[in-house]
Amino acid sequence: MSMRARAGSSAYRANLRKRAGSLDLAGDSPHFGRLCFGRSDLRILIVEDEPTLGNQLKTTLEQTGYAVDLSTDGEDGHFLGSTEEYDAVILDLGLPEIDGLTVLGMWRREGRDFPVLVLTARDSWSDKVAGLDAGADDYLAKPFQTEELIARLRALIRRASGNTSSELVAGDVRLDTRSGRVTLAGEPVKLT
Ligand code: CA
Q1: Which of the pair, 4 or 89, is modelled with greater confidence?
Q2: Most CB contacts within 10 A, which of 9, 52, 116, 155?
Q3: SS3 9
Q4: In 3D, which of 114, 104, 112, 117 has the Cα closest to residue 77?
Q5: How high is the mean pLDDT of the chain?
Q6: What spacing in Å lies between the alpha carbon of 73 and ligand 1's midpoint?
Q7: pLDDT of amino acid 163
Q8: CA 119 to ligand 1 center in whole angstroms
Q9: Mind listing the pLDDT tens digit for each residue in 48-71?
């Protein structure tokens, strides 16, 4: 139907409901990230030398809608992070070639400022402090729930993009989940 339908008309409301129906407000659809950030090209780098964990994370994140590169050692991981653009990095600390903390320090000195979520099997305060000192944005000790990793990753990307609002976007429909306000093509919409 035409976008010029009068706001408040029943045809307008029916169209809005139809379009809003494609919004995933619960946040657990594969498309949530895309809706939330209004982009379809979020790129994640995973640097993890355990093949089973690395491949499982890659598959899960791809199913969640991210484009994912997987690196299995510190040297290759550092190179990718230095030369490619990523929205976030998941970095294991215990890595062959160059350890994760060193890789992180190198990136930060090079001015690479993507958010980094550090993974480690060593759940100790000293590792955590060293990771945060080296420029990690968040920290997750193995073993962890994949759901928690995805939630933390999403929060990191949201913070890094400066989008701390709870606005969901699909096409020209925007929903502010805090205020409950909906706009369509910039025009406020009154929901019945
Ligand atoms: Ca490791």
Answers
A1: 89
A2: 116
A3: coil
A4: 104
A5: 79
A6: 9
A7: 57
A8: 9
A9: 999 999 999 999 999 999 999 999
Burial call 68-78: b when 16+ CB within 10 Å, e when fewer: bbbbbbbebbb
CB contact at 8 A, 59 and 88: no
> Ligand 1: distance of its center to the CA of 153 in Å?
19
Q: Which of 60, 70, 69 is nearest to 30 (CA)?
A: 60
Spatial separation of the C-alpha atoms in residues 39 and 169, rounded to whole Å: 9
Distance (angstroms) between ligand 1 centre and the Cα of 141 equals 12
CA distance 175 to 181: 6
Residues in the chain: 192
- Alpha-carbon distance of 86 to 106, in angstroms, equals 16
Residue position matching structure tokens 């089973």? 52
- Among 114, 111, 109, 110, smallest CA distance to 47 is for 114
Cα of 1 from ligand 1 centre, angstroms: 54
75 Cα to the center of ligand 1, angstroms: 13
Say how far apart CA 77 and CA 72 lie, in whole Å: 7
Q: Say yes or no to pLDDT of 102 above 80.
A: yes
